[in-house]
Amino acid sequence: TWKWVVGPMFLYLCERLVRFWRSQQKVVITKVVIHPFKTIELQMMKKGFKMEVGQYIFVKCPAVSKLEWHPFTLTSAPEEDYFSIHVRIVGDWTEGLFNACGCDKQEFQEAWKLPKIAVDGPFGTASEDVFSYETVMLVGAGIGVTPFASVLKSVWYKYCHDATNLKLKKIYFYWLCRDTHAFEWFADLLQSLEAQMQERNNADFLSYNIYLTGWDESQATHFVVHHEEEKDVITGLKQKTLYGRPNWENEFKTIAGKHPGSRIGVFLCGPEGLADTLSKQSISNSEADPRGVHFIFNKENF
After folding, report:
1. FAD-binding FR-type domain: from which residue to which, for each copy (predicted)?
2. Looking at domain 25-123, which CATH architecture does it have?
């Protein structure tokens, strides 16, 4: 038995030593942004830190707990001079981090009063392959939209810098939310991208659909009366918010019809049930002919 135990134990000890070494490296919190509905954004800097889109890190705050490490997806782009995470306050540890950063106080918080943070990572995910395709479908459910914040920011930086060498030509973005609580911080990013794409006369580069899945018919009816207004009354975007769940079969067939003979990357950050649905649709809508359309499914589950 010991022959089978020694190898994994050695690898585990190496991993713990690497994490301890990384936790001793200095991390500076440069900015704390408070978003609506108790969501905070931590912008940080660390010497030698390099990331790719959609990656995640483990974070420890000794002021809250000396032992707990928590995973968070990076919401910044590799082109930015800092890295950031968005933290939704939903438990004891996140509440402790919220208070340690002085977010519960009205007055301005001095930088030296901010807590020490230890960071381990970054670690890779399937989202890193998004630039390997000419056409992609990005599907985020709830807070699972965070890796796509990094993707969309990076796409925009690359597009502005050298659009001709960017392989990615079309993005179909789907965001499924039970309620409007997560809209505020991410809608700002979409509004910015929407305005900048229109300025460059390339509004078709990004197609997005936002679905409110937790609203009943009476709640939706209240906003339908404003459907003819130029911007959506919930998100402030030109694309109107939809209610219910997407008809994935229709969505896949429509996209396949628009991009015949291409490989389309499907990227999901969401629950296992949605992953099963998208995986089946990717298989059923891919053609047997190698020259036909093929959907390549990639997922992250939470």
Report:
1. 19-129
2. Beta Barrel (2.40)
Confidence of residue 231 (pLDDT cuts 50, 70, 90): low
The pLDDT tens digits of the residues spanning 257-295 come to 888 888 888 888 888 888 888 889 888 888 888 888 888
Q: Please tell me the distance from the alpha carbon of residue 85 to that of residue 41, in angstroms, as a whole number.
A: 6
Fold of 128-299: Rossmann fold (3.40.50)
Q: Record the tokens describing residue 250, joined without a space.
A: 């229709």
For residue 189, give both structure tokens.
């990013």
Q: Where are the beta strands (DSSP E) in the chain?
A: 27-35, 39-46, 56-60, 70-73, 83-88, 118-123, 135-141, 170-177, 206-212, 242-243, 263-270, 294-301
Count of alpha carbons within 13 angstroms of residue 80, beta-carbon side = 21
Q: b vs e for 154-176, b when ≥16 Cβ sit within 10 Å of the residue's Cβ?
A: bbbebbeeeeeeeebebbbbbbb
Kindly report whether the peptide bond that precedes residue 122 is cis, defined as omega within 30 degrees of 0. yes
Q: Which residues pair with 216 in a beta bridge?
A: none
Q: CA of 152: how far to CAs of 7, 34, 262, 302, in Å? A: 41, 21, 21, 21
> Which H or E run includes 215?
none
Residue with tokens 């700002």: 188
Residue 222 confidence class, pLDDT cut points 50, 70, 90: very low
- Please state the separation of Cα 3 from the chain's center in Å: 41
**% helix / strand / coil in the chain, to the nearest 5?**
40, 25, 35
Instruction: Tell me the Cα Rg of the chain.
Output: 21
- Rounded to 10°, the helix 183-199/146-162 angle is 20
Mean pLDDT of 96-111: 79
Q: Where in the chain are the domains? A: 25-123, 128-299
